[in-house]
């Protein structure tokens, strides 16, 4: 699945508005770094017909401040109109857990160039930053992310829903329902952990259905189980 990130530049004028839609296309919605690989590529494409864009990329541990254990090459470069280039993501050797996935984030900041005819104009130029989940996957893991998703357990604690992940993979929800009521704040469950979510007010059913997002960014098949009590 390919994601198009659109940037809208708008400036109100006396007789209307000035608005350009431009975009950098990113080749995937998430990155899975299998420990057996030397590097993982990420394709970027400039869909602008006229102007180059400046692209800066780096990883972090999730707090937005601490750099992740990966080297992104090139970290800063110019991407000309209608051209494409791959980022190369390389693990720097920092020890990571071998019994479960680890989660990091890749940041891609895109900065549009200014057209020569706009040098003397008051043009608003916006900078857009995209964050992609980056999963480090050790070679020792057994099973699969889909099986991990299928084996999730759910329990009710009062007006709270507990999602329990006993596996070694992250499970990111595409949807999560109790009966026909959607659990709005469902995001993901880390390996060997649980998350507590607020139940919808009218969620009185004992049946839970869910789907997870796959490595390719689409939705898995739907799974169903019976809600337990804790």
Describe the structure.
The chain has two domains: 3-137, Immunoglobulin-like (Sandwich); 145-229, Sandwich (Immunoglobulin-like), CATH 2.60.40.10. Helix content is 3%, strand content 52%. The protein has one helix at 145-150; strands at 3-13, 16-26, 30-34, 40-46, 53-60, 70-73, 76-79, 84-91, 102-112, 128-137, 153-157, 160-165, 171-178, 181-182, 188-189, 193-198, 207-212, 223-226, 228-229. It has a five-stranded antiparallel beta sheet with strand order 1-2-4-8-6, with no helix packed on it. It has a five-stranded mixed beta sheet with strand order 3-10-9-5-7, with no helix packed on it. Strands 13, 14, 15, 17 and 18 form a five-stranded antiparallel beta sheet that branches. A hairpin with a 2-residue loop joins strand 11 (153-157) and strand 12 (160-165). The two termini are 39 Å apart. Residues 1-21 have low confidence and may be disordered.
CATH classification class of the largest domain: Mainly Beta
Which structural class best describes the helix and strand composition?
mainly beta
Q: Approximately how much helix is present in the residues? A: under 10%
The pLDDT mean sits at 87
Sheet with the most strands? 5 strands, antiparallel
The CATH homologous superfamily of the largest domain is named: Immunoglobulins
Strand sequence of the main sheet, in spatial order? 1-2-4-8-6
């Amino acid at each position: 699945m390919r994601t198009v990130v659109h940037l809208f530049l708008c400036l109100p004028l006396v007789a209307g508005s000035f608005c350009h839609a431009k975009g950098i296309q990113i080749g995937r919605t998430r990155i899975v770094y299998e420990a057996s690989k030397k590097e993982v590529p990420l394709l970027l494409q400039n869909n602008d017909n006229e102007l180059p864009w400046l692209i800066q990329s780096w990883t972090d541990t999730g707090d937005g401040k601490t750099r992740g254990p990966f080297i992104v090459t090139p970290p800063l470069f110019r991407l000309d109109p209608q051209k494409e280039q791959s980022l190369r993501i390389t693990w720097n050797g920092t020890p990571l857990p071998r019994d479960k996935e680890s989660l990091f984030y890749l940041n891609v900041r895109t900065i549009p160039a200014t057209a020569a005819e706009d040098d003397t104009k008051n043009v608003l130029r916006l900078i857009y930053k995209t964050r992609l989940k980056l999963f480090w996957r050790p070679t020792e893991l057994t099973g699969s992310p889909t099986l991990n998703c299928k084996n999730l357990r759910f329990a009710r604690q009062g007006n709270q829903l507990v999602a329990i992940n006993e596996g070694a993979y992250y499970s990111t929800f595409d949807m999560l329902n109790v009966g026909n009521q959607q659990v709005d704040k469902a995001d993901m469950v880390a390996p060997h952990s649980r998350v507590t979510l607020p139940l919808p007010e009218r969620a009185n059913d004992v049946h839970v259905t869910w789907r997870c997002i796959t490595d390719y960014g689409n939705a898995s098949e739907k799974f169903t189980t019976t809600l337990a009590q804790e």
